[in-house]
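Appendix C: a fully annotated inverse folding record. The material below is reproduced so that readers can follow the format used throughout the book. The structure is listed first as tokens, followed by the designed sequence.
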């Protein structure tokens, strides 16, 4: 059977203008949250990526309508079903976002324990503990979970860790609960703020989004709305890192420099300038990377989703450094592939010791979304030809990654082999 690969000839500088769409990590929970009303919810300017296609399939199983209108997604209809089958839950961790809205709308949910990227165990205890505090009865079976509730009741819930998905799920579960809910120790990611903005536009009463305490006054009904989600800081960060590495000057339109503070402060040097433009970010680089240490963490710390991509850059930097992963376990699978390109990396449980090297093109295999993007970025600078397999992982979160970079002057093609 034929498979798609990306073929990259490294060594071209990136130059020109590009733009980013609404963030995958905002649109996915929104496609779940939209089920809290039967009215039409329009989500503007979305990317054509397979994670969103899969969310369409999950919504279809739940008998709600989802259509593309140009780049906008229009969601509508009352939920008719309460069971997300194993096949879909396995390909997508975001099926977990359905738990809160389904519990509110149907009162009884059966969900196979979700899959997604191969980056660690990814338990859902914080989701389930919170739902239980709101009054849900939870039964954990071998590889699925069953939740039941008549009407949820507001409560005070302390999250043991600021999980993005659990924060969004508990917000969904609380917006129509009886009384007031206080969520303490929540995630502060821009995508969480965007999600709350959507629910408030639908009539919810949520305060404190972007801080670590969110207060929600339950309402009886939500209604339709038109939403412009926050744009994708991880795609923007990937382009910034690629430009820093290859050298050149790129303007990324429609993105917010403040959402990338942890990356920008690390990268800026006499050789790399990053500044905000009228409606985005401009990055200009000589292609020389000064090494720095990185430690990922919940927002506003360095995003775990950029960890593989920054490593791809740092291993072609000027000195030794350490990359620590503090959010997920097992997020270094890509490092072995970088080593095939000549990277000097010593891997331990939660950190990488990265030495400086000049990478050479090689055949490498992506085994998760961001690790795959890291391999592409490494290939843009490496000498000679890099072939990246496992493109289906990259397509989960980047719309035509080869077009993003070829439009900026890179030699990168998608091929069927
Ligand atoms: C979201 C993002 C993902 C990003 C991650 C961290 C989406 C669709 N995905 O994933 O791109 O990498 O945030 O910024 O928005 N955890 C528990 N118990 C739980 C829930 C989480 O132990 O009940 C742990 C996870 O195993 C992980 C850490 O908390 O180690 C962070 O997970 P979480 O913030 O929930 O990530 P996601 O929402 O899955």
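Designed amino acids, in order:
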């Amino acid at each position: 059977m034929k498979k798609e690969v990306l073929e990259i000839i490294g060594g071209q500088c990136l130059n020109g203008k590009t733009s980013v769409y609404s963030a995958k990590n905002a649109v996915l929970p929104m496609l779940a949250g939209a089920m809290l009303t039967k009215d039409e919810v329009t989500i503007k300017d979305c990317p054509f990526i397979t994670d969103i296609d899969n969310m369409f399939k999950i919504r279809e199983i739940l008998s709600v309508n989802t259509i593309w209108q140009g780049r906008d997604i229009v969601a509508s209809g009352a939920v008719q079903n309460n069971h997300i089958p194993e096949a879909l839950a396995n390909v997508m961790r975001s099926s977990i976002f359905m738990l809160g809205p389904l519990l509110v709308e149907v009162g009884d949910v059966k969900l196979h324990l979700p899959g997604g990227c191969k980056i660690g165990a990814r338990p859902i205890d914080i989701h389930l503990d919170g739902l239980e505090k709101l009054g849900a009865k939870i039964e954990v079976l071998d590889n699925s979970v069953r939740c039941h509730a008549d009407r949820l009741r507001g409560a005070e819930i302390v999250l043991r860790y600021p999980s993005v998905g659990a924060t969004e799920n508990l917000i969904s579960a609380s917006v129509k609960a009886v009384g007031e809910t206080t969520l303490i120790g929540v995630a502060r990611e821009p995508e969480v703020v965007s999600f709350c903005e959507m629910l408030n536009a639908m009539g919810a009463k949520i305060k404190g989004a972007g801080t670590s305490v969110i207060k929600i006054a339950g309402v009886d009904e939500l209604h339709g709305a038109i939403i412009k989600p926050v744009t994708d800081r991880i795609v923007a960060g990937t382009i910034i890192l690629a430009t820093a590495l290859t050298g050149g000057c790129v303007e990324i339109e429609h993105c917010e420099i403040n959402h990338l503070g942890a990356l920008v402060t690390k990268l800026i040097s006499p050789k790399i300038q990053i500044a905000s433009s009228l409606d985005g970010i401009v990055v200009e680089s000589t292609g020389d990377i000064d090494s720095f240490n990185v430690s990922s963490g919940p927002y506003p710390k360095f995003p775990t989703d950029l960890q593989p991509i920054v490593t791809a850059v740092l291993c072609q930097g000027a000195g030794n450094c350490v990359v620590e992963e503090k959010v997920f376990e097992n997020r270094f699978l890509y490092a072995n592939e970088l080593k095939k390109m000549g990277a000097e990396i010593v891997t331990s449980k939660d950190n990488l010791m990265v030495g400086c090297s000049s990478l050479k093109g090689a055949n490498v295999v992506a085994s998760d979304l961001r690790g795959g993007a890291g391999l592409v970025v490494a290939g843009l600078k490496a000498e000679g030809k890099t072939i990246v397999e496992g493109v289906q992982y990259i397509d989960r979160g980047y719309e035509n990654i080869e077009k993003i970079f070829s439009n900026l002057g890179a030699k990168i093609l998608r091929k069927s082999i």
